[in-house]
Design goal:
6-stranded antiparallel beta sheet
Length: 653
C-alpha cells in the first residue's frame, strides 16, 4: 500500500513563491546540500575563522571559498536564476549578501553565514517534511500481506497488491485487517481507531464492513475483499489529507503575497542604506555596505512564509488522527468563526438506525396487502426510515416475496412513489398526503399522538385513500446532549433543521437540549434558512449525512458530513469537513482546533515580523552583524516550525 499510494506529501515541500526555483519553493533537495557537505562546510568555515584570527589571510580566503562552494552552490544557482527573472527571493538575497560580504573583506563571516544558512534550511526542510508525512504513518497500520483462503481450503500469505477483489481473506484474533472487505464468516469486535479516531470497539458479524488498519480483537473472521490496497478507506483518508495539505489557507495566501512585496522593498531599503548612510549618518562606506548586507540577510522572508504551512499541515494531521477529515486550510480557518450550526435530525442527532415500532392498516382486512406494497416501496429506497420499514415488515411477511414495483421515483422531502400491480402508490410523509388531498382530522390526530413521542410517521396511500400508517423510532445518539453543551461552550448556537414532521423534530431536539428546532423542511427550505442565518447570525455550519443534505452542506460556510466511513458519497464530496465517526463532539473539537491553529498562526507571524523589525532598527543604528542576522533569522524560522509542530499533538482542548 505504501508503494501504491502517491500524494503531495512525497514532493519536496514548498512554502513560498514557486517561480524561478527560488524563494521557498527553492528549499528543496536540489538546492540544499546533504548533511555530509553541510558539516564539512561548517568545519571549513570554522577553519576560515581561525585562519583570520591568526592572520593567515590567503589560507582563510581559500577555506572560505571552499566552505561557500560546499554549502552554497545550489543557492547561488537558484539565486542567479531568480535575479535573471527580476525576482527577489531568499536564495537571491543570500547570494548577494554573501558575495558582498566576501568583496568587502568579511570572507570568514560570509563563509559561516552560508554554512549556517544551509544547516538551518536543511533542519527546517526536514521538519516540514516530517509534518507533511506524519499522516502517512497511518498507512503503516495496514499489513503488507494477507492470509488468502484458496479453493482447496489452504491459506496462502500474499502481498496485498496481489490479492484480487472478491478474494477470501482470514483475519486472526489480534491481527490487523489488511484490506477493506465484508465479513463472510465469524463474529468478533474490532478496534477501528485508524478510521474513526476512537479506540471504541465495534461489533462485527456476517455482512458488516471491515476496514484496513483496524484490529481484530477476539474471534477469527473471514472476509471478502472489496477494495484494492490503494483505494481502501484508510488510503483515501490519507490521500484526502495530503490534498488538503497541498492547498493554501487564506492566511498562507496573504503571507505569500505580503512576502512578494516585502522582500523587494527591504532590498531597496538596503541599497538606500548603503548609498545614503555615508552622507546622512556619517558612516564609512565599508560600514554602510556591511549594515546593508546584514539587512539583506534579515530581509529573508523564510520564517514568515513557513509560519503558516507548518501550522496548517500539523493541524490537519492532528484532526485526521482524531477522525476529523478537514478538506483544506480554508475550512480549518473558517471553523473558528462559526456562530450557528444547523443539525439534521436523522443520522446526525439520532443514531440513523431507526426501527419500525408500530404499524397499522387503516382498512379492515387490508393488513397483508398493505404490508406487501409498503415493503416493496420501502425496500427499493435508501432512506433510513424506508429501510427501517422494510426490515420491520420483512419479519412478518413470507420469505422470497417478489418485488414488482415499477417506475420508482424519489420525492425529495416527501418520500417515494411507484407502480405496484398497475396502481400508483406513495410511501410518504404527511406533507405529501396533504398535497394529495387525503389528510383527514382523524388521521392527523393519530399522527400527533405518535410524533409527540419522537416517532416519525410514514403513510402508504394510493390515489383514493391512505391505506396504512408506519411509526418509526430513531434513538438519540448517546453523545448528542454532551455535544450540544460543548457547542454552546465554544459559542456556537445549535439549531435543528429536518425534513421530518415538526412535532417529532421538536421532541428529539428537546431531548438533546436544543430549543430551536424546525421541521417539515424541503431541501430548498434548508438552503433559504441557511442564507437567513448567514445574514442575521454570522458564519453558519451545516451537519448531515444524506443526499438531501448535500445542497445545504455546500451552501454552509463549513459543511460537516457525519459518519464518513458509511456516509453517502455525495455528502462526503460536498462537505468541507468529514467526521469519520458518528460522534458530534468532534464538531466542537474542530472549532477548538481551528482557534488553536489561528492563535499559533499569528504567534508565528508576529514573531517573524517582530524579529525583522528589531534587526531593521539595529541596522539603522549601525549595530547589526551578519552573524547576528543569520542566527536570528534562521533561529526564528526553526522556532516557528517548532511552534507549529506542537499542533500535531493537539489533544482536543
Amino acid at each position: 500500500m505504501r508503494r501504491l499510494l502517491r500524494g503531495p506529501a512525497q514532493a519536496s515541500h514548498a512554502h513560498g513563491n514557486e517561480d524561478g526555483g527560488d524563494d521557498h519553493a527553492g528549499h528543496d533537495h536540489g538546492v540544499l546540500p546533504g548533511w555530509p557537505r553541510i558539516f564539512a562546510a561548517l568545519a571549513v568555515a570554522l577553519g576560515a575563522e581561525v585562519s583570520h584570527w591568526f592572520q593567515l589571510e590567503y589560507v582563510g580566503m581559500a577555506l572560505a571559498v571552499l566552505a561557500i562552494a560546499l554549502s552554497g552552490l545550489g543557492v547561488y544557482k537558484a539565486g542567479i536564476q531568480s535575479l535573471l527573472k527580476l525576482k527577489l527571493g531568499i536564495h537571491a538575497l543570500m547570494a548577494v549578501a554573501v558575495t558582498g560580504a566576501f568583496i568587502i573583506g568579511q570572507w570568514p563571516e560570509a563563509a559561516m553565514v552560508m554554512a549556517l544558512y544551509a544547516a538551518a534550511e536543511r533542519i527546517e526542510d526536514q521538519a516540514m517534511d516530517k509534518a507533511r508525512n506524519a499522516i502517512r504513518s497511518l498507512l503503516n497500520l495496514a499489513p503488507e500481506t494477507a492470509d488468502v483462503l484458496l479453493a482447496d481450503g489452504t491459506v496462502q500469505k500474499l502481498p496485498v497488491e496481489q490479492v484480487s477483489l472478491g478474494a477470501l481473506v482470514r483475519v486472526a484474533p489480534g491481527a490487523r485487517v489488511p484490506l477493506d472487505g465484508k465479513v463472510t464468516q465469524g463474529e468478533s469486535t474490532v478496534d477501528q481507531a485508524p478510521i474513526t479516531g476512537e479506540s471504541k470497539l465495534a461489533d462485527k458479524a456476517v455482512g458488516d464492513d471491515l476496514y484496513a488498519g483496524s484490529v481484530n480483537q477476539h474471534g477469527e473472521l473471514q472476509m471478502q475483499v472489496t477494495s484494492p490496497p490503494d483505494n481502501t478507506l484508510l488510503a483515501r483518508i490519507v490521500h484526502a489529507v495530503e490534498e488538503a495539505q497541498a492547498s493554501r489557507a487564506p492566511t498562507q495566501r496573504f503571507v505569500d503575497r505580503f512576502a512578494q512585496v516585502y522582500t523587494p522593498i527591504v532590498f531597496v531599503l538596503a541599497v538606500l542604506l548603503a548609498v545614503l548612510a555615508p552622507f546622512v549618518m556619517g558612516w564609512t562606506w565599508h560600514q554602510s555596505v556591511y549594515q546593508a548586507l546584514a539587512l539583506l540577510v534579515i530581509a529573508c522572508p523564510c520564517a514568515l512564509v513557513i509560519s503558516t504551512p507548518v501550522t496548517v499541515v500539523s493541524a490537519l494531521t492532528a484532526a485526521a488522527k482524531r477522525g476529523i477529515l478537514i478538506k483544506g486550510g480554508s475550512a480549518l480557518e473558517e471553523a473558528r468563526n462559526i456562530k450557528v450550526i444547523a443539525l439534521d435530525k436523522t443520522g446526525t442527532l439520532t443514531t440513523g438506525s431507526p426501527t419500525l415500532v408500530q404499524w397499522q392498516a387503516l382498512a379492515a382486512g387490508d393488513d397483508a396487502d398493505a404490508a406487501h406494497i409498503a415493503w416493496q416501496l420501502a425496500s427499493r429506497s435508501d432512506h433510513p426510515v424506508s429501510r427501517a420499514i422494510a426490515a420491520g415488515l420483512a419479519k412478518t411477511l413470507p420469505a422470497n416475496l417478489e418485488n414488482t414495483v415499477q417506475d420508482l421515483k424519489a420525492l425529495p422531502g416527501r418520500g417515494v412513489e411507484g407502480q405496484v400491480n398497475g396502481t400508483r402508490h406513495v410511501l410518504a410523509n404527511l406533507r405529501m398526503i396533504r398535497e394529495m388531498g387525503l389528510a383527514t382530522p382523524e388521521l392527523e390526530k393519530q399522527l400527533v399522538e405518535q410524533e409527540t413521542q419522537g416517532r416519525t410517521v410514514t403513510l402508504l396511500a394510493d390515489a383514493r385513500s391512505v391505506r396504512a400508517l408506519f411509526a418509526v423510532a430513531d434513538p438519540l445518539r448517546s453523545t448528542s446532549r454532551e455535544a450540544v453543551e460543548q457547542l454552546r461552550a465554544v459559542g456556537v448556537e445549535p439549531i435543528v433543521l429536518s425534513g421530518d414532521n415538526t412535532a417529532t423534530v421538536r421532541a428529539v431536539a428537546a431531548e438533546a437540549g436544543i430549543e430551536d428546532a424546525r421541521g417539515s423542511l424541503l431541501p430548498q427550505d434548508k438552503l433559504d434558512l441557511l442564507a437567513t442565518f448567514q445574514k442575521t447570525k454570522g458564519p453558519t455550519a451545516m451537519t448531515g449525512d444524506g443526499i438531501n443534505d448535500a445542497p445545504a452542506l455546500a451552501k454552509a460556510d463549513v459543511g460537516f458530513a457525519m459518519g464518513g466511513a458509511h456516509s453517502t458519497g455525495m455528502a462526503m464530496e460536498t462537505a468541507s469537513v468529514v467526521l469519520m465517526n458518528d460522534d458530534l463532539r468532534r464538531i466542537p473539537d474542530t472549532v477548538r482546533l481551528s482557534r488553536s491553529a489561528h492563535s499559533i498562526l499569528w504567534q508565528n507571524i508576529s514573531l517573524a515580523l517582530g524579529i525583522k523589525v528589531i534587526f531593521f532598527v539595529l541596522a539603522l543604528m549601525g549595530m547589526a552583524t551578519m552573524w547576528m542576522a543569520v542566527v536570528a533569522d534562521m533561529g526564528v524560522s526553526l522556532l516557528v516550525v517548532a511552534n507549529g509542530l506542537r499542533l500535531r499533538n493537539w489533544g482536543g482542548k
